[in-house]
Every structure is written in C-alpha cells, then in structure tokens.
Amino acid sequence: MRRISKVIAFLFLAIFLGYTTGSAAFLLRLPSEIRLPEYATHKVNIGLRQPLTVETQSAGTSELAVSVFGVPLRRIVLDVVPDVKIVPLGTAIGVRINTDGVMVLGMNSFLGEDGEVHRPSHGILRAGDLIFQVNDTPIKCKEDLSRLVAKSTGNITLHLRRDGTEMAVTLSPAVAETDGVRRMGAWVRDSTKGIGTLTYYNPSTGTFGALGHGIMDVDTKKLMSVKSGAIMPSTVTSVERGARGAPGELEGKVDTSRYLGQITANNNNGIYGTLSPAAKAEIVIREPMPIALRAHIKEGPATILTNVSGTTVQEFEIEIENVNRNSTDETKGMIIRITDPELLRITGGIVQGMSGSPILQNGRVVGAITHVFVQDPTKGYGIFIENMLHPEAIPLAYV
Predict the structure, then answer these.
(1) Most buried of 8, 77, 247, 331 (most Cβ within 10 A)?
(2) Exposure b/e, 174-205, CB count within 10 A at least 16 = b
C-alpha cells in the first residue's frame, strides 16, 4: 500500500492540537475513514475551527493509528481514490428480476383427500428460503418445483439456501382434496417486477446503477438473490401525488419487448448491470460528470434529474438539508427536500418510482434519492454516490 504522507502529517498535527487543548471528545468525533479523490487539493473538515488543506497524489490506501502517550485510541483509514466520472441519467425504467432459486414466502395448510388437515412445510421451511433443487433435479422456476412435487411418490429432499448457507431438508407432500395434486403447502415466488429510476452509466466500466437501494421481497422483506434480470423502457403515464401519510407513486407503461440492459447484481445500495448498445445511444445523452465524495458534499442548494412525465428527464431544484457522513445506513447519508414549485405541483414531493434519481451539486454527481418521509413527502433520504457506485468503479477500504 502507498503511504499518503502529507495527509498523515496534517492529521497528526490536528489530532495533537485537538487533544492537548483539552478536548478528549475530539478524538471520538474523528471519522473512521477519510476518502479523497486523487491529484487534487482538498479542504477537509474534521472538527477543527479551520478545515485542513490536504494535497493528494496517486490512488492508494493507508492507515493511521491515533495514540496518546502510547495508548492507541483511534484508527483512521486514508483512502485516495480515482476521480471517477459517470453519466447521470434519471430515466424511468421497468425492472424485472428472476431469483436465484424459488423463494419461499410462507407456509399454509390444506385439506387432504384423506379428510385431514396437512401442513407439510410447517416447521421445516422458512420465509426467505431459496429452493434450487428437488431430490437430484435442479429447478429454474416455480413451475419446475410444482411439477416435481406433484409427481413425487414419497418424501422429497429440497436443497436450499438459507441466510447464505446451503442445506437440505426433507418433507412429505400430501394429496390435496380440492384437485388430487400432491402439494407441500408453501407459497413461493421466482420473479418480481416494478418501476424505478436509472441513476448512472459508467463509461469506463460499461456498468449502470439504479434505485439507490436493493430490491427486497415484499412478503419476506429479504434482499432478493438475482439469477437474471433486465431493465426495460418505461413511459410515465400518470402520477399519484404524495400526501402526508400516503406516499405517491409513478404509474407507467413498460415496454417488455425491448431490453435496455442486463441486471447482474442486487445489493443493499442498488441494482447493477450492463447497458445494451442500443440503450447507450438512446438514453446516454449527457457528458460524464465527476463525482463528489461525502467530504465535499455541502448542505444547501442542489438539483435532481428525474422522469415524471412521458420519457422526458428534467432537472429540478432541491435542498440538501443534512449530510450525515457517519451514517450506519448507507442509503440514508443525506436528508433532502424538494423545493422546485413545478415538481411539487406534479408529484407533491418524492414518490415511489423516483428512487435512484441522481442528485447533482456544483457540477458533480453527489448521490441519489432512496426514500421518502411518509409524514412529509417533500423530504426524503439520499445515498452518497460513492456508496452506490459499482464495486468495479472505486476500490473501497472500510474499517
């Protein structure tokens, strides 16, 4: 790892001055990580009266152990990262995800042909289990699962993933009284779809990011495991305006005959994949912009790009009211408020479907909208763009 000597020298001096002036609490306020773009001069505020001026060179990571009288009190990761440029989008898209296995939503009981109530899956399966094999036969969809259970003649062994661990369980299907078909008594799903917003395209990696948060199963509240997926063009046809206690929603028509790109990942900070060549020509209409890391985002005016009518992306004014650089929830790094009169007239604020709308400030991409405040739809949360970027874009180092 490269040593970032100038940064360390500045920080050591600042920490020494902060401690020796009697402020032990100063140490507790120090960040666990400082991330800065390469080849630039930065002003870093770490709680002193005046910000530090830090000059960075090439990308690299170093660690500073903060000690007082030989007692280690704090470790700070100093991460100098490439000055990435991305294309902010704000385009409404249709999203379809096929799960990596058949997801169990819940268990149910049914009346068997013997007149008894049967619960074959009760106490064996759990909501969120991903079934990928029945006995020795791999399955691709819920129809495969139903067919194999129906043709079984005794106990069946289900191979599944539960909380990241693979295991096998055995249960005994029963013949249902209603249709004479063998069932295992579980509700399952193998795909989901909806509308969201495409956040960015990274020309250096060919990847896109969208939503600013992961796609969770509505029944199990668990992050959906992706086997395959696609984004498709969407036209916003109407808007259900948001109101206090009642989040609004974008309503649109998805063109399922055309694919804009392939989804390859779904994590807590968004969905990711690659755009098709046709999509690049159709929706990548802006020049790449540099990103701003959290240390450089300021409370104050900003804008968002979003699509709330037809297929047109517009820029609207917002206010960044709070920047929480130490938030434990990466999707809630900023609190933003919609201030643009036109957007307020159309939507009432932030509505479902706007998640992923990129946030711009001072000529840089700083993040994306993620959540709305249910009791005040004019306000919501945003994710820092450094947290949302595809892992290929910025090498991260956390403590």
Answers:
(1) 331
(2) bbbeeeeebbbbbebbbbbebbbbbbbbbeeb
What average pLDDT does the segment 261-277 reach? Answer: 91
Active site residue 213: yes
What are the distances in angstroms from CA 271 to CA 195, 274, 279, 380? Answer: 12, 11, 17, 20
d(CA 188, CA 313): 37
What is the DSSP pairing of strand 334-338 with strand 289-290? Answer: unpaired
Answer yes or no: is 348 within a domain: yes
| Tokens encoding 88 | 């902010």
Domain closes at, from 184, 204, 235: 184
Same domain, 161 and 197: no
Q: Which of 326, 325, 324, 338 is nearest to 369 (CA)?
A: 338
Q: pLDDT at position 1, please?
A: 43
Catalytic residue list contains 340: yes
Mind listing the pLDDT tens digit for each residue in 49-92?
A: 666 666 666 666 767 666 666 666 667 777 676 678 999 999 99
**Which residue in the list 225, 234, 355, 357 is annotated as catalytic?**
355
Domain harbouring 171, CATH code:
2.30.42.10
User: For this structure, is 42 an active site residue?
Assistant: no
* CA dist., res. 118 & res. 109, Å (int): 6
- Which is more confidently placed, 391 or 275? 275
Catalytic residue selected from 42, 118, 159, 213: 213
Q: Which of 392, 385, 269, 397 is nearest to 329 (CA)?
A: 269
> pLDDT value at position 215?
86
3-state secondary structure of 126: coil
Which has the closest alpha carbon to 171: 128, 137, 114, 123?
123
Tell me the per-residue pLDDT of 130-185, one tens digit each, with 9 for 90 and over: 999 999 999 988 999 999 999 999 999 999 999 889 999 999 999 999 899 999 99
Domain carrying residue 267 = 85-96+191-388
Helix (H, G, I), strand (E, B) or coil at 16: helix
Backbone dihedral region for residue 197 (phi beyond 0: left; psi -120 to 50: alpha; all else: beta): beta
Query: Is the residue at 396 inside a domain?
Result: no
Same domain for 298 and 212? yes
Domain check: are 176 and 202 in the same one? no
Sign of the C-alpha dihedral computed for residues 192, 198, 200 and 206 taken in this order:
positive
The predicted pLDDT at position 357 comes to: 97
